Amino acid sequence: MTTIWLTLPVVLSLLTAVAVFTCQRRKWLCDLISATSVCATLVVAALLTYEVILNGPQAVAFGQWQAPFGIVFVADFLTVAMVLITAIIGAISVFYAMADIRTKHSYTAYHALMHVLLAGVYGAFLTGDIFNLYVWFEVMLIASFGLMILDANKTQIDGALKYVVLNLISTLFFLLAIGLLYGATGTLNLADLNTKAALIAPESQVLLSGLFLFAFAIKAALFPLFAWLPASYHTLPNVVVALFAALLTKVGVYALMRVFTLVFPLHESGWQSTLMWVAALTMLTGVLGAASQFDIKKILSFHIISQIGYMIMGLAVYTPLAIAGAIFYVVHHILVKANLFLIGGLIERRYGTSHLKQLGGAYKAMPWLAFLFFISAFSLAGFPPLSGFWGKFIVIKASLQTSDYWLAATALLVGLLTIFSMSKIWNEAFWKKPTNDELESKALSRATLYLYSLPIVMLAALSLLIGLVAEPFYQFAEHAAQQLLVPDAYIQAVLGGAP
Amino acid sequence: MEVLWSLVVGVLVAAGIYLLLERHVLRVLFGLILLSSALNLAIFTAGRLTPGLLPLIGADATLPPDGAANPLPQALILTAIVIGFGLLIFALLLFYRAYYQTGSADVDDMKRSEEDE
Q1: Which residue in chain B is spatially nearest to A236 when comparing CA positions?
Q2: Which pLDDT value is given to residue A437?
Q3: Which stretch is the leader sequence (chain B) (predicted)?
Q4: Are the Cβ atoms of B35 and A231 closer than 8 angstroms?
């Protein structure tokens, strides 16, 4: 039975994309199909998670071509966590889109492309074949290109240009790395590569893993390859940027985690110390970039980069605790970052701008929104007992255990600077009196306001839940990290045979 | 044979990267096209060049004959060509739109998204 659950997220999303695409101007039908689909996928993802927790990693081979020859879908703890969180973000985005971009000309096309994007993300998380991972990356990429240029203005086209060129380069290098890896090992199956990649000559291993690192570093927006992110994200509609911020870079992080545990274990690949420096510099440059900005979306875009640094730090330290911390951090970050963009989106809709100098008085107008922003922003900065605190705590504790004190110090400093940026948004947008009197807030209809606030409340509640009841989530992350570092169960699920 | 093709790939990649660093967007696109073709060739070369038999399994055999070409790299390249074609066409149209709107094909003039309004 599990074989069906494994493929359903991708299949459902693709079918929905086709169905929605035929809706054209019947927006109500599009809403109906889209909403039903994301709710169904959420149920599927939850059942898949339950199944994997109960019975360990699951795999399915397509068309009776058994691994390592055919393409497989595999779900271990990390995969199901990512699939479940993607399903949550997918559902949130669809509902938020109904409020945010319903008046846009290409409304139904947005929905269709969002489902294609989700299919690509699910596929990338579930696949157990490295070339198939490339294909899902491309599916995701072409959908994100489409979302970027729908109803685009000049600024958006300009941002999309940079996004497109740099991401194309990234996928080309990924493709090259796959080709050379295949030449060196004769297999593309990730589980099979676990044993075969270790047989490659050490110098070639360093080169190959370096190529993978470069390709995924662009995807994950690591220092110094993140230029595409702050150039393009802030030009997008809010629901799109929330979806991108939550998922796209995290697929890069996921790919890094997978390849550098299963194929080239990081401590043997020769890139560990480089990755530590990259993590520290990613954190620092991201947060400093944010400090110099005066636009909500730009500040938040730079913060994505800085937060990615923490996840990479967890991976770079490479102990079970550190990887568990990184996984915990990814999940926490997806929820909180998406929520901050959604809150920013509501403010922008209400006041017609996201520039801090023109904003003000949102606390008086919407005290409940201020409260929700407060939760998300402090969670991002890492205040106890919110989810960000636990993520940072685990990662930093792991780095102290391995005596990487400078890394821990950087992480703490960056946390402090994060508070600076968040309190800037708080002061300017919520607290201060509006500087110009012409700042008028548009009245939104009750239904729209509910559609806006429902996703925001849900995400804030989830983030609070993870923060207050951190223990089961941490244990899950610990299990996932264990499976990554000792991938016997994963390999057995794919290739069969004795453990 | 592999050495020769590796050199060809190297030259093509170098040319592609040189073009990527140019200021005219069309040359950037040409760079991407060149790079993508070069990398397809690299996969082909990495899959070993065997001027041999067709990889067809006889009716009474279970394995292809010795010295048969490896069909998998070709399947990979075919996939990559199709994907690359779609992406490059998209990039071409996007570049044209950017040129149409800014009236300039110089990448230095395309800074709209990084300026403060």
Answers
A1: B113
A2: 59
A3: none
A4: no
A154 and B CB contact within 8 Å: yes
Q: Which of B39, B79, B110 sits opposite A172 (nearest CB)?
A: B39
Take residue A253 and report the two structure tokens written for it.
């992080």
- Contact check, Cβ <8 Å, B45/A158: no
- Which residue ranges make up each domain of chain A? 271-489
Please state, for a pLDDT cut of 90, what percent of chain A lies above it: 59
Angle between helices A387-401 and A446-468 (to 10 degrees): 30
Listed in sequence order, the residues at least 6 apart from A259 whose beta carbon sits closer than 8 Å to its beta carbon are A130, A209, A212, A216
pLDDT at A436: 64
Instruction: Judge whether A172 is closer than 8 Å to chain B, CB to CB.
Output: yes
Helices A77-100 and A2-21 pack at an angle, to 10 degrees, of 20
Please answer yes or no on whether B86 and A142 come within 8 Å at the CB atom: yes
Least confident span in A339-343, A365-369, A465-469: A365-369
Beta bridge partners of A127: A73
- Residue A235's contacts (CB-CB under 8 Å, 6 or more residues apart) are A153, A155, A156, A158, A159, A160, B113
Among A138, A154, A180, beta carbon nearest to B83: A138
Does B43 lie at the interface with A, CB-CB under 8 angstroms? yes
What DSSP string describes chain B?
-HHHHHHHHHHHHHHHHHHHTSSBHHHHHHHHHHHHHHHHHHHHHHT-----B-----TT-SSPPTTB--HHHHHHHHHHHHHHHHHHHHHHHHHHHHHHHHS--BGGG--GGGS--
Taking only the tens place, the pLDDT of each residue in B40-95 is 999 988 888 777 778 788 888 888 777 777 888 888 999 999 999 999 999 999 99
A180 and B86 within 8 Å at the Cβ level: the answer is: no
Give yes or no for B45 touching A (CB within 8 A): yes
pLDDT digits (tens, 9 = 90+) for A227-281: 899 889 988 999 999 999 999 999 999 999 999 999 999 888 889 999 999 999 9
d(CA B70, CA A69): 13
Q: Does domain B2-51+68-107 have CATH number 3.30.70.260?
A: no
Q: Which residues of A10-22 are buried (b: 16+ CB within 10 A; e: fewer)?
A: bebbbebbebbbe
Give the DSSP per-residue string, A228-254. Answer: HHHHHGGGS-HHHHHHHHHHHHHHHHH
What's chain A's average pLDDT? 90
- Residue A426, helix vs strand vs coil: helix
Residues of B in contact with A187 (CB under 8 A): none
Which of B36, B111, B116 has the CB atom closest to A172's CB atom?
B36
Task: Report chain A residues whose CB lies below 8 A from the CB of B31.
Answer: none
- Counting residues of chain B whose pLDDT is more than 70, the rounded percentage is 97
DSSP state of A443: P
A268 part of contact set with chain B, CB < 8 Å: no
Gap between the Cα atoms of A98 and B90, Å rounded = 28
Q: Which chain B residues contact residue A294 at CB under 8 A?
A: 116
Residues of chain B found within 8 Å of residue A169, distances taken between Cβ atoms: 20, 32, 35
Q: Which residues of B touch A159 (CB under 8 A)?
A: 113
Chain B residue closest in CA terms to A354: B117
Chain A contact for B28 (CB, 8 A cutoff): yes
